[in-house]
Amino acid sequence: GQQVMQIPQYQHVQEGEDFTTYCNSSTTLSNIQWYKQRPGGHPVFLIQLVKSGEVKKQKRLTFQFGEAKKNSSLHITATQTTDVGTYFCAGRNRDDKIIFGKGTRLHILP
Amino acid sequence: NAGVTQTPKFRVLKTGQSMTLLCAQDMNHEYMYWYRQDPGMGLRLIHYSVGEGTTAKGEVPDGYNVSRLKKQNFLLGLESAAPSQTSVYFCASSKVGALSYNEQFFGPGTRLTVL
Predict the structure, then answer these.
(1) Cβ proximity of A30 and A48 under 8 Å
(2) Chain A, chain B: beta-carbon pairs less than 8 Å apart
(3) pLDDT of B96 strictly over 80
(4) Residue B71's CB: how many other CB atoms inside 10 A?
(5) What is the helix (H) or strand (E) element at residue A66, kind and residue range?
(6) Would you place residue B101 in the very low, low, confident or very high pLDDT band (cuts 50, 70, 90)?
(7) How many Å lie between the alpha carbon of B25 and the closest alpha carbon of chain A?
(8) Which of A26, B70, B99, B100 lies 20 to 30 angstroms, CA to CA, from B93?
(9) Smallest Cβ distance to B101: which of A6, A48, A101?
Protein backbone atom coordinates (compact mmCIF):
# COMPACT_ATOMS: atom_id res chain seq x y z
CA GLY A 1 0.00 0.00 0.00
CA GLN A 2 0.88 3.64 -0.17
CA GLN A 3 3.50 4.77 2.30
CA VAL A 4 4.77 8.07 3.55
CA MET A 5 8.38 7.73 4.62
CA GLN A 6 9.77 10.25 7.07
CA ILE A 7 13.44 10.72 7.91
CA PRO A 8 15.30 10.90 10.14
CA GLN A 9 13.55 8.96 12.91
CA TYR A 10 15.49 10.84 15.58
CA GLN A 11 17.54 14.02 15.60
CA HIS A 12 19.62 15.49 18.37
CA VAL A 13 20.77 19.08 17.84
CA GLN A 14 22.46 21.71 19.95
CA GLU A 15 20.22 24.61 20.85
CA GLY A 16 20.64 27.21 18.15
CA GLU A 17 21.40 24.71 15.38
CA ASP A 18 19.08 24.13 12.46
CA PHE A 19 16.88 21.05 11.99
CA THR A 20 15.22 19.49 8.96
CA THR A 21 12.85 16.55 8.58
CA TYR A 22 11.83 15.07 5.24
CA CYS A 23 8.77 13.23 3.99
CA ASN A 24 8.58 11.14 0.84
CA SER A 25 5.49 9.53 -0.65
CA SER A 26 5.36 6.66 -3.11
CA THR A 27 2.49 8.37 -4.93
CA THR A 28 1.38 11.90 -5.71
CA LEU A 29 -0.39 13.66 -2.87
CA SER A 30 -3.32 16.07 -2.98
CA ASN A 31 -1.89 17.94 -0.04
CA ILE A 32 0.37 17.44 2.91
CA GLN A 33 -0.02 18.53 6.50
CA TRP A 34 2.49 18.88 9.29
CA TYR A 35 1.80 18.25 12.96
CA LYS A 36 3.82 18.65 16.14
CA GLN A 37 3.42 16.45 19.19
CA ARG A 38 5.04 17.51 22.45
CA PRO A 39 6.19 14.72 24.79
CA GLY A 40 3.12 13.28 26.50
CA GLY A 41 0.80 15.40 24.39
CA HIS A 42 -1.34 15.03 21.32
CA PRO A 43 -0.59 16.04 17.71
CA VAL A 44 -1.26 19.68 16.94
CA PHE A 45 -1.72 20.98 13.41
CA LEU A 46 1.00 23.27 12.10
CA ILE A 47 0.31 23.84 8.42
CA GLN A 48 -1.11 22.48 5.18
CA LEU A 49 0.56 22.66 1.76
CA VAL A 50 -1.50 22.19 -1.37
CA LYS A 51 0.27 23.61 -4.42
CA SER A 52 3.22 22.13 -6.27
CA GLY A 53 6.45 23.82 -5.16
CA GLU A 54 4.68 25.69 -2.36
CA VAL A 55 6.78 27.24 0.40
CA LYS A 56 5.29 28.58 3.61
CA LYS A 57 6.95 30.13 6.63
CA GLN A 58 5.90 30.39 10.25
CA LYS A 59 8.51 32.40 12.14
CA ARG A 60 11.52 30.04 12.32
CA LEU A 61 9.74 27.18 10.55
CA THR A 62 9.85 26.76 6.75
CA PHE A 63 7.68 24.19 4.99
CA GLN A 64 8.14 23.05 1.41
CA PHE A 65 6.08 20.89 -0.94
CA GLY A 66 7.94 19.33 -3.84
CA GLU A 67 7.27 20.09 -7.47
CA ALA A 68 5.99 16.56 -8.06
CA LYS A 69 3.88 16.71 -4.87
CA LYS A 70 5.56 13.56 -3.60
CA ASN A 71 7.87 15.04 -0.99
CA SER A 72 7.93 17.71 1.63
CA SER A 73 10.26 19.14 4.24
CA LEU A 74 10.12 21.07 7.48
CA HIS A 75 13.11 23.20 8.38
CA ILE A 76 13.57 24.90 11.74
CA THR A 77 16.14 27.68 11.97
CA ALA A 78 18.03 28.24 15.22
CA THR A 79 16.23 25.65 17.32
CA GLN A 80 14.98 26.48 20.79
CA THR A 81 14.08 24.22 23.69
CA THR A 82 10.40 24.84 22.93
CA ASP A 83 10.88 23.03 19.60
CA VAL A 84 11.29 19.68 21.37
CA GLY A 85 8.80 17.07 20.22
CA THR A 86 7.91 14.78 17.38
CA TYR A 87 7.07 16.23 13.98
CA PHE A 88 4.71 14.29 11.72
CA CYS A 89 3.82 14.78 8.12
CA ALA A 90 0.46 13.53 6.87
CA GLY A 91 -0.19 13.12 3.17
CA ARG A 92 -3.64 13.04 1.60
CA ASN A 93 -3.76 10.82 -1.46
CA ARG A 94 -6.07 10.92 -4.47
CA ASP A 95 -8.52 8.59 -2.69
CA ASP A 96 -8.85 11.21 0.04
CA LYS A 97 -7.09 8.98 2.57
CA ILE A 98 -4.65 10.50 5.03
CA ILE A 99 -1.42 8.65 5.73
CA PHE A 100 0.90 9.73 8.50
CA GLY A 101 4.66 9.40 8.44
CA LYS A 102 6.24 7.76 11.48
CA GLY A 103 7.54 11.08 12.71
CA THR A 104 10.88 12.64 13.54
CA ARG A 105 11.65 13.05 17.21
CA LEU A 106 13.63 16.21 17.87
CA HIS A 107 15.74 16.46 20.98
CA ILE A 108 17.50 19.70 21.86
CA LEU A 109 20.80 19.63 23.72
CA PRO A 110 21.27 22.69 25.93
CA ASN B 1 -15.41 25.12 23.23
CA ALA B 2 -13.90 21.92 24.59
CA GLY B 3 -12.73 20.79 21.16
CA VAL B 4 -12.17 17.03 21.10
CA THR B 5 -12.51 15.11 24.34
CA GLN B 6 -11.79 11.44 25.05
CA THR B 7 -12.99 9.17 27.81
CA PRO B 8 -11.33 7.51 29.67
CA LYS B 9 -7.78 8.90 29.88
CA PHE B 10 -6.28 5.66 31.16
CA ARG B 11 -7.47 2.07 31.31
CA VAL B 12 -6.02 -1.31 32.18
CA LEU B 13 -7.76 -4.40 30.83
CA LYS B 14 -7.22 -8.10 31.13
CA THR B 15 -6.96 -10.18 27.97
CA GLY B 16 -10.43 -11.01 26.68
CA GLN B 17 -12.21 -8.12 28.35
CA SER B 18 -14.17 -5.62 26.33
CA MET B 19 -14.40 -1.87 26.52
CA THR B 20 -15.56 1.22 24.64
CA LEU B 21 -13.61 4.42 24.15
CA LEU B 22 -15.70 7.55 23.72
CA CYS B 23 -14.76 10.52 21.60
CA ALA B 24 -16.80 13.71 21.52
CA GLN B 25 -16.33 16.93 19.53
CA ASP B 26 -18.23 20.20 19.77
CA MET B 27 -17.00 21.79 16.53
CA ASN B 28 -19.74 20.36 14.30
CA HIS B 29 -17.11 18.50 12.26
CA GLU B 30 -18.24 15.94 9.70
CA TYR B 31 -15.16 13.72 9.76
CA MET B 32 -13.96 11.78 12.78
CA TYR B 33 -11.04 9.38 13.12
CA TRP B 34 -9.55 6.86 15.50
CA TYR B 35 -5.78 6.33 15.51
CA ARG B 36 -3.45 4.23 17.56
CA GLN B 37 0.07 5.34 18.32
CA ASP B 38 2.81 2.87 19.15
CA PRO B 39 6.52 3.64 19.72
CA GLY B 40 8.31 3.99 16.41
CA MET B 41 5.13 3.40 14.41
CA GLY B 42 3.68 6.87 14.21
CA LEU B 43 -0.08 7.26 13.94
CA ARG B 44 -2.04 4.47 12.30
CA LEU B 45 -5.66 4.93 11.28
CA ILE B 46 -8.03 2.33 12.73
CA HIS B 47 -11.44 3.48 11.51
CA TYR B 48 -12.93 6.74 10.39
CA SER B 49 -16.30 8.31 9.68
CA VAL B 50 -17.28 10.86 7.07
CA GLY B 51 -20.62 11.64 8.67
CA GLU B 52 -23.28 10.57 11.12
CA GLY B 53 -24.25 6.94 10.60
CA THR B 54 -21.22 6.12 8.43
CA THR B 55 -17.99 4.31 9.22
CA ALA B 56 -15.09 2.99 7.18
CA LYS B 57 -11.99 0.89 7.78
CA GLY B 58 -8.59 2.42 8.04
CA GLU B 59 -5.15 0.89 7.97
CA VAL B 60 -5.43 -1.38 11.06
CA PRO B 61 -9.14 -2.16 11.70
CA ASP B 62 -8.90 -5.75 12.91
CA GLY B 63 -10.06 -6.29 16.49
CA TYR B 64 -11.93 -2.98 16.64
CA ASN B 65 -15.45 -1.80 15.89
CA VAL B 66 -16.82 1.72 15.72
CA SER B 67 -20.13 3.52 15.70
CA ARG B 68 -21.19 7.06 14.83
CA LEU B 69 -24.79 7.29 15.95
CA LYS B 70 -24.55 11.01 16.66
CA LYS B 71 -22.51 13.53 14.68
CA GLN B 72 -20.61 14.69 17.73
CA ASN B 73 -19.66 11.23 19.04
CA PHE B 74 -17.44 8.47 17.68
CA LEU B 75 -17.11 5.28 19.71
CA LEU B 76 -14.30 2.74 19.43
CA GLY B 77 -14.99 -0.74 20.77
CA LEU B 78 -12.69 -3.60 21.65
CA GLU B 79 -14.75 -6.80 21.89
CA SER B 80 -12.00 -9.06 23.21
CA ALA B 81 -8.87 -7.15 24.16
CA ALA B 82 -5.43 -8.56 23.36
CA PRO B 83 -1.99 -7.48 24.62
CA SER B 84 -1.20 -6.32 21.05
CA GLN B 85 -3.84 -3.63 21.52
CA THR B 86 -1.82 -1.96 24.25
CA SER B 87 -1.33 1.51 22.82
CA VAL B 88 -2.25 5.16 23.02
CA TYR B 89 -5.48 5.86 21.18
CA PHE B 90 -6.18 9.26 19.68
CA CYS B 91 -9.45 10.52 18.32
CA ALA B 92 -9.49 13.37 15.82
CA SER B 93 -12.05 15.37 13.87
CA SER B 94 -12.00 17.62 10.84
CA LYS B 95 -14.28 19.59 8.55
CA VAL B 96 -15.35 18.03 5.30
CA GLY B 97 -13.58 18.69 2.00
CA ALA B 98 -10.70 17.19 0.06
CA LEU B 99 -8.80 20.39 -0.60
CA SER B 100 -10.35 22.71 1.91
CA TYR B 101 -8.53 23.76 5.01
CA ASN B 102 -9.28 20.55 6.87
CA GLU B 103 -6.77 20.23 9.67
CA GLN B 104 -7.39 17.46 12.13
CA PHE B 105 -8.05 18.37 15.73
CA PHE B 106 -6.85 15.68 18.11
CA GLY B 107 -8.13 14.69 21.52
CA PRO B 108 -5.78 14.22 24.48
CA GLY B 109 -5.54 10.45 24.01
CA THR B 110 -6.42 7.30 25.95
CA ARG B 111 -3.60 5.17 27.26
CA LEU B 112 -4.73 1.53 27.20
CA THR B 113 -2.81 -1.37 28.69
CA VAL B 114 -3.93 -4.95 28.11
CA LEU B 115 -2.42 -7.49 30.47
Answers:
(1) no
(2) 51
(3) no
(4) 16
(5) none
(6) low
(7) 15
(8) A26
(9) A48
